[in-house]
Amino acid sequence: MSVKTALVTGAAAGIGRACALRLARDGIAIGVLDLDLAAAQKVADEITAAGGKAIALSASIAEEDQIATAVSTLKETFGPVTIVVNNAGISNFIPFDELTVKDWDLMFEVNTRGTFIVTQAVLADMKAANWGRVINISSSSAQTGSKEQVHYSASKGAVIAMTKSLAQALGPYGITVNNIPPGAVMNTVMSEANKHRFRMSMEQLTSAIPVGRTGEPEDIANACAWLASEDTSYVTGQTIGVNGGRVVS
User: Fold this and answer.
1) Contact 143, 121 (CB under 8 A)
2) What is the C-alpha to C-alpha distance for residues 10 and 86, in angstroms, rounded to an integer?
C-alpha cells in the first residue's frame, strides 16, 4: 500500500504541530507548512527522527502562488497530496466599534481565503485518487460568538459553512470534508498570545468545562487522525467539537 501524503498548515507549533506528529505516527508523509521555515524544519526533523517522512515548507496560505509552489514541492518529494489539515490562522481581540476594515479584511484573508486557496491547491490530486480528506480547524467561537472577536468568529463561521458546502460538492469524488472547532485549548500560539485577555482565572476556566480540564493540542490531533483515516468515509460535512463539553450539540 502506498504511503499517503498530507499537507498540514500552521504546523510549526501548537495544534498544527500536534496534528503533523500524530498523522506521521500513522505512517503518513507530512508537508510541515508554516510562515516560520526554521520552526517548521524542527517539526520535520522530529518526525524524521522518529522514523517518519516529512518536509518543511514555507508559505503564506493567503498567497496563491506561494501555496502552489509549496504543494508542488511536496508532491515532488512524497507524491500526490490527498490529506489536508487547514490549521493556519490568526486571531486577536478588538471591540467591534474599534474594528477597521483593514482588521476585518486581514482576518478573512488568512482564515477564510487561506482555507479556500490551500484546499483548491490539493483538490486535483484528491479527485485523481478518488479519495481525499479535508480537515478544517475552525473555532468554538464561531459556535458561541465572542464579543471582542466579531471578525474572528465570523471568519471561522465561514469556514464551518465552507465545510458543509464542500462536503456536498466533493462527496461524489470520494472526498470527505469536516471541521474541528477547538475549545479552550492551551499551549498554542493563539492561547499564549491572547491569554492576558481571558476574563477568568485558569481555575475558573477549568471548572466551567464539564470534563474538568482545558484542552491540549494532542486532543485536536487525535480527532484529526480519525478524520484522516479510512474509517471515516461516511463522515462528511460534520462539525466535530473537541472542547470538553464547552459547546454541546
Assistant:
1) no
2) 8
Nearest-angstrom CA–CA distance, 58 and 41: 10
Which of 20, 64, 67, 12 has the alpha carbon at shortest distance from 39?
Answer: 12
Grid coordinates representing 175?
472526498
Domain ranges of the chain: 5-232
| 106 C-beta neighbours (distance < 10 Å), count | 16
Contacting residues for 63 by C-beta, under 8 A, at least 6 apart: 117
Q: Which three cell numbers stand for residue 247?
A: 459547546
Q: Cα–Cα distance between 171 and 132 in angstroms, integer? A: 9
pLDDT tens, residue by residue, 85-98: 999 999 999 999 99
Report the pLDDT value the prediction gives residue 147, as an integer from 0 to 100.
93
Helices and strands in the chain, H and E counts? 10, 6
- Architecture, CATH, for domain 5-232: 3-Layer(aba) Sandwich (3.40)
The reported pLDDT for the residue numbered 198 is 54
Give the three cell numbers for residue 195. Answer: 491569554
For the chain, give the longest Cα–Cα distance.
55
Q: Which parts of the chain register pLDDT below 50?
A: 191
Q: So which residues are the catalytic ones?
A: 152
- Residue 220, helix vs strand vs coil: helix
pLDDT for 172-196, tens place per residue? 999 999 999 998 787 666 545 555 5
Question: In the prediction, which pLDDT does 84 show?
Answer: 99
SS3 182: strand
> How far, in Å, CA of 108 to CA of 117, rounded?
12
